[in-house]
Amino acid sequence: MRNIILLVLMACLISCDPIDDRLKIINNTNEEIFFSISKGELFNKNPLFISNKDTIWESSNIIYPMSNYNHALIGPNEWEYFINRDCEDSTLRIFFFRKELIIDYEWDSIVKFQIYSDKKSFKVKELEINNWEVTYDSKY
User: Fold this and answer.
1) Of 33, 97, 118, 131, which sits 20 to 30 A from 138 (CA to CA)?
2) Helices marked H in 54-106 — which ranges?
3) Contact 25, 33 (CB under 8 A)
4) For residues 96 and 120, what is the distance between their CA atoms, to the nearest angstrom?
C-alpha cells in the first residue's frame, strides 16, 4: 500500500511542471503551412522533418488551414526566458513554408539558399502587445 501511495505522489510531482503555451501561431490561409522556430537569422538545418518528394513533417510543425497552434515550452514564463536568453538580439524568428515549397525543393537546397515563404521576427514586448499571437497570411 505504501508503495502505491509513493508511486502516486511521485507521478503528481513529476507532472506538475508548468507549461507556457501562450505563443499562438494562426494560419489564416486555405492551405497547410509548415513552420520552424529559430534562435537566429537563419533557420535550423533540422526542423524535425524528412524531406523528399513525399515530405513528412512532424505533426507539431504543421498548422492546418484556418486553424491555430499553441506552441508550448516547459516552465513558467519560459517564452520570455527563451527569447531573451537564447535568441540572437533577444528576437524570436518564425519561418513559414508553403506546402508547395517543401514538395518542390530538397531540404538541403532550402537550407543552403534560405528559401522560405515568410519570416516573422518579434521581441517579447511585441508579442505581449499582440497577445502572443502570430498570424500567417499568404503573400501569394
Assistant:
1) 131
2) 78-86, 99-104
3) no
4) 8
Per-residue CA distances from 65 to 31, 80, 127, 133 (Å):
5, 28, 22, 16
Q: Which residue has the cell 492546418?
A: 64
Q: Are 63 and 69 in contact (CB under 8 A)?
A: yes
Q: For residue range 56-78, what is the model confidence (pLDDT) as tens digits?
A: 555 558 899 999 999 999 999 99
Spatial separation of the C-alpha atoms in residues 21 and 73, rounded to whole Å: 6
* Measured distance CA(70)–CA(96) in Å, rounded: 15
Cell numbers at 80, concatenated: 520570455
Q: What is the pLDDT of residues 24-35, one digit of tens each?
A: 999 999 998 988
Burial of 129 (0-12, 13-18, 19+ CB in 10 A): exposed
113: DSSP letter: T
